[in-house]
Amino acid sequence: MNRKYLQDRLFSSLWVPVLVVLIIVAAIVGIGELLLTLAHVEEKIGVIREPYAVFVALLLALVVLVGAAVLDRVGRNSGA
Predict the structure, then answer these.
(1) Is 30 left (phi over 0), alpha (psi -120 to 50) or beta?
(2) Does the model's pTM come out above 0.85?
(3) CB–CB of 38/48 below 8 Å?
(4) What residues does each domain of the chain span?
(5) For FRET with 27, which of 17, 58, 62, 73 sits at 20 to 30 Å CA-CA?
(6) Do residues 26 and 32 touch, judged by C-beta distance below 8 A?
């Protein structure tokens, strides 16, 4: 294996985990900000019903599961 190839693999093995951590942190912060904004809006529009919260949690769980399934399928087809 040539040196450039090994450097590229080392570089990608470093930035991929960093990128994943940054995306997860951004998602957590974004969801937190959304919930805080929703709490402030709730004071203005009245009571937000619990079924809405359950529905949003269900949608988030579906997004995570579908994303994991897609990533798994792509990983299997990549020949790795």
Answers:
(1) alpha
(2) no
(3) yes
(4) 1-47, 49-80
(5) 73
(6) no
**What are the CA-CA distances from residue 18 to residues 21, 24, 53 (Å)?**
5, 10, 31
User: How confident is the model over 20-74, as pLDDT tens digits?
Assistant: 889 989 988 888 888 788 777 766 666 666 677 778 888 888 998 898 888 888 8
- Higher pLDDT: 28 or 8? It is 28
Spatial separation of the C-alpha atoms in residues 1 and 48, rounded to whole Å: 60
Query: Which DSSP state fits 78?
Result: T
Question: If you search the block for the tokens 């949003």, which residue do you land on?
Answer: 56
What distance in Å separates the CA atoms of residue 41 and residue 79, rounded to the nearest whole number? 48
Nearby residues of 31 by Cβ (< 8 Å), 6 or more positions away:
60
